[in-house]
Amino acid sequence: MTKDVIALTPKMPDPWAVLAGLLSGGPDKLVGTRGEGAVIQLCDPEGRPLVSVEAPLLVSVEGEAERLLGATAPPVPYWWTEARATTGVAEAEQLAGTFATRLASLVGGSAWPPNAAGSLAVVKTDGVSVAPEPAAAQPAIDVLTERVAVVIQDRPVVAMTAWLSDAFRAAAEAGLGLQVVSPAGTTLSPAVRDALGGWPSRWIVQDERDGYYDGLTGAVLRWQDGMFAPVASPDATEDDPRTPVAATFQLVRDTGERQLALTFRMVHPADDRLVLGGGLETVWRELTGAPPAGWGTSEPATLPWSPRRLTDVAHERAPEPTWFVVVGNRDRPALATVRITRTEAGVEEHVTLAFGYGSSEEPPLDALPAAAEALATRHHLQSMLVQLRKARRDVAVPPRFEGPGVPLAFVLGAEEVRAMPGDRARRTPLAEQPVTLGPRTRPALYYPLPGDPSDLSGWQDFEQLMRHLKGA
């Protein structure tokens, strides 16, 4: 399995420290670069990479090393330097470990995982060569077929790192699915779950009993026809494949932990004075009393929260869409993904946000109407759905069954209300009628869903409301 080794250092690795690390394979090892110098590689005699080293990241957000690695990092700000060893080459793993160990010994700090720290001596790699696979051209991809790109991740949390983001991009450009393989016990960042999309992209979990299974659906998988695909039962038919579900996936225990999940879309008029991220910060403050802790274009989130800097990045990338991850602090675990796109309607922000709560903590449901009104009156809200889920407080996605959320409320923005004929938006078949948000001359509407949060009846109410609003 591919090994990622990370050096966490209080000082930036200077060129001499990086050079000393790169000499872990001896002075005759070839060194190459990718990504306009952002990635340095130790190569075999044929120029194929043994170890790929990402440019150091300055992390100014507390808790990211603990969240993603379970490691204790130096006080912020600190430097995060990743080295990725090529799959199936034991010497490559030793090279990565020695690189990180040398780096930490020269500038302070530590190497992760702890067992990766090795000797400072030169690793013997005479005669070591990497198989000439197309995947060697992309450091994050371990196996490449005509149907999928496969990434193997041996980390506590499979996160949307710069490596994995590059793999998603490369697979999409090639028209391939992306399949992420991880060992048992690993969790998934919501940022990766939301990016996986549909078939044939999957999160594949290794399992002692069933071999491999889909970490999000539980379907037992096998490698067949150039990708991981579900195993069919002997009595399966075309209409009913009856895919077996892994026993491990079904081991569910109610811990009392919950997540408050919000999905909302805002459409802003295109304006040079527009500042993005304000709607997300407003909701965050209404529900927690504080702004987000940090943000970034990958995980770990490296930058302290700043809507102005986020806007600058999106502006520089326009008209291409921009994706961000936003994180909370240790006291209130939370994670949001933000996708910003330029459309004919203006500048759209699509936000997926989750706050985690322990068994003894109550989600602030009473604050939801105020958060919705602030979005509707100040941030051009189009629509929002609020759900309550039985899920982990740390907002990580486990390879176990987690039931669907229960809809608690739906919000329709002022423009959408005005566009509906007659009084359809104001008169619904639900027992509880909508609450007016903002000025009565141009209101948004907040629809409380009377479903019991302890069961799934809220979905029936939500579907009934959607049919009514669509005129069906």
How would you explain this protein's 3D organization?
With 472 residues, the protein is α+β, with helices and mostly antiparallel strands. Helices cover 22% and strands 30% of the residues. The chain has ten helices and 26 strands. The protein has helices spanning 15-22, 64-69, 90-107, 162-173, 190-196, 278-288, 307-317, 368-378, 414-419, 457-469; strands at residues 4-9, 30-34, 39-43, 49-54, 57-59, 78-85, 110-112, 143-144, 148-152, 157-158, 177-182, 187-188, 202-207, 211-214, 220-224, 227-230, 258-268, 294-296, 303-304, 322-327, 334-343, 346-357, 381-390, 406-412, 435-437, 444-448. The strands form four sheets. The chain has a ten-stranded antiparallel sheet with strand order 19-18-20-21-22-17-23-24-26-25. A hairpin with a 5-residue loop joins strand 3 (39-43) and strand 4 (49-54). Helix 1 packs antiparallel against helix 3 (90-107) and helix 6 (278-288) packs antiparallel against helix 8 (368-378). Mean pLDDT is 86; it is low at 26-30 and 119-137.
Main sheet characteristics: 10 strands, antiparallel
Structural class based on helices, strands and sheet pairing: alpha+beta
Rg of Cα set: 24 Å
Name the beta content range: 25-35%
The number of distinct helices, counting runs of at least 4 residues, comes to: 10
Helical content stands at 10-25%
Terminal CA distance:
52 Å
- Residue stretches low in confidence (pLDDT < 50, at least 5 long) are 26-30, 119-137
